[in-house]
Design brief:
Its EC number is 4.1.3.38. Keywords: Folate biosynthesis, Lyase, Pyridoxal phosphate. Its cofactor is pyridoxal 5'-phosphate. The chain has about 280 residues and is of the alpha+beta class. It has two domains: about 5-115, D-amino Acid Aminotransferase, Chain A, domain 1 (2-Layer Sandwich); about 125-280, Alpha-Beta Barrel (D-amino Acid Aminotransferase, Chain A, domain 2). Helix content is about 30%, strand content about 30%. The strands form two sheets. Strands 6, 7, 8, 9, 10, 11, 12, 13 and 14 form a nine-stranded mixed β-sheet that branches. Strands 2-1-5-4-3 form a five-stranded antiparallel β-sheet. Strand 10, helix 5 and strand 11 form a beta-alpha-beta unit.
């Protein structure tokens, strides 16, 4: 285990996972990645609500207070001014061999706390993007939730890292844009925002939700959730993406297309930073 990482399994410090575990065997579980700043986790309610929706979709029993207890335990182990990432993983726990879920199900919760070197109050430089050759599979029953099956993202990351870019756009089987590998994508077209609807695949991000519900409305921006083609992205006035650790990040390049100015992206970033400061008590 790295020195800058601490792991708890069901509330106890551990460097190993009890076996068998259905998360390892079948990807039978969910996870949340939380940003920790100044002893607090911003937009914690959004993470909790998405996790609860995922638990219901996978027919897990409710966690009760276990999620909040795991977050509190992690926060108590950090220095007050520390910046960290907290991954909460919930698996269906142990069970007999085979796909049939055990009855009763006793979920297992793993909390993994890792230090971060980034400054959460500094906007990241505009990113260079490629288009991934890997297309996401469609599965409406799993769309939106953050389940453990991330092999598509593993392979896509390997591909774009080899191209020396920061991220990659991922499309579905029909060639429509879904997201970037680790975040949600938005296109600015004539003063309005467009983002994929995520009906068939993709993760409904917490920062995506906040952008739609909070930051865009404050600026008088309309957000359209609909099918979005790669051509529409290339023709857009601006592109940006968001995730829980980077916040909002403008796009400087997608393939051969470049953007030199990002006025609406920067305005949205300022809304994000203002909310972040308030949510962590600064």
């Amino acid at each position: 285990m790295p020195q800058d990482e601490v792991i708890w399994v069901d509330g106890e410090r551990s460097a190993s996972l009890p076996l068998p575990d259905r998360g390892l065997s079948f990807g039978d579980g969910l996870f949340e990645t939380l940003l920790i700043v100044n002893g607090r986790s911003p937009w914690l309610d959004y993470h909790r609500q998405r996790l609860e929706a995922g638990l219901a979709a996978l027919h897990f029993p409710a966690l009760g207070s276990t999620f909040d207890e795991a977050v509190a335990l992690a926060l108590s182990s950090l220095a007050p001014q520390a910046v960290a990432a907290l991954r909460i993983t919930v698996t269906r726990g142990s069970g007999p061999r085979g796909y049939q879920a055990p009855s009763p199900t006793v979920p297992r919760l793993v909390a993994q706390l890792s230090s971060l070197s980034l400054d959460p109050f500094t906007c990241p430089a505009p990113a260079k993007l490629a288009v991934s050759s890997l297309r996401l599979a469609s599965q409406p029953l799993l769309a939106g939730i953050k389940h453990l099956n991330r092999l598509e993202q593993v392979l896509a990351t390997r591909e774009f890292r080899a191209q020396n870019v920061d991220e990659a756009v991922m499309c579905n089987q029909q060639g429509q844009v879904v997201s970037v590998v680790a975040g949600n994508l938005f296109a600015v077209v004539k003063g309005e925002l467009y983002t994929p609807s995520l009906q068939d695949c993709g993760v409904s991000g917490t920062r995506r939700r906040a952008l739609i519900e909070r930051w865009a409305p404050r600026l008088g921006l309309t957000v359209h959730q609909q099918a979005l083609s790669l051509e529409q992205c290339l023709d857009a006035d601006e592109l940006l993406f968001c995730n829980s650790l980077q916040g909002l990040r403008a796009v400087a390049q997608l393939g051969a297309k470049c953007w030199g100015e990002h006025p609406l992206s920067q305005a949205l970033q300022q809304q994000y930073l203002a909310d972040l400061q308030q949510s962590v008590g600064l």
